């Protein structure tokens, strides 16, 4: 193989590799644009649901802002319906939304 032929082969390998990378990047970009342009499901379409969420946020925020670091255990016990943390036999379980996934 002559040196010119070797350079020509290397050139075409480079051109094909760059063209493939460009097509791959364009495909990935189009796929991302399609995924991100989907309309999200409505969170609260009903007026009553929105008002209930806003009211819960208002009362919850007011309760959280009134907690004192010195009496935090008593505040949590009072909001859980017990008089002291030691009389609460079952701990408060916090759960995060799973959005339909089984955990």
Describe this structure in words.
The protein is mainly alpha-helical and 103 residues long. Helices cover 60% and strands 0% of the residues. The protein folds into two domains: 1-36; 48-87, no CATH class. The longest helix is centred in the N-terminal third of the chain and has 34 residues, at 3-36. The termini are far apart. 0% of the residues are buried.
H and E string: HHH
Secondary structure tally, helices = 3
Any idea what the radius of gyration is? 30 Å
Mean pLDDT: 77
Distance between the termini: 63 Å
Residue share in helices? 55-70%
Task: Jot down its keywords.
3 helices; 103 residues; 60% helix; elongated; mainly alpha
Please specify the SSE layout and strand pairing.
Layout: H1 3-36, H2 47-65, H3 72-80
Quick structural gist:
With about 100 residues, this protein is mainly α. Helix content is about 60%, strand content about 0%.
């Amino acid at each position: 193989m002559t040196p010119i032929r070797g350079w020509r082969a290397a050139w075409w390998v480079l051109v094909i590799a760059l063209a493939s990378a460009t097509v791959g990047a364009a495909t990935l970009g189009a796929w991302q644009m399609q995924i991100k342009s989907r309309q999200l499901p409505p969170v609260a379409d009903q007026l009553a649901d929105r008002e209930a969420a806003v009211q819960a946020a208002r009362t919850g925020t007011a309760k959280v802002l009134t907690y004192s670091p010195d009496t935090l255990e008593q505040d949590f016990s009072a909001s859980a319906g017990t008089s002291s943390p030691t009389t609460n036999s079952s701990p408060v379980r916090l759960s995060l939304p799973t959005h339909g996934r089984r955990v």
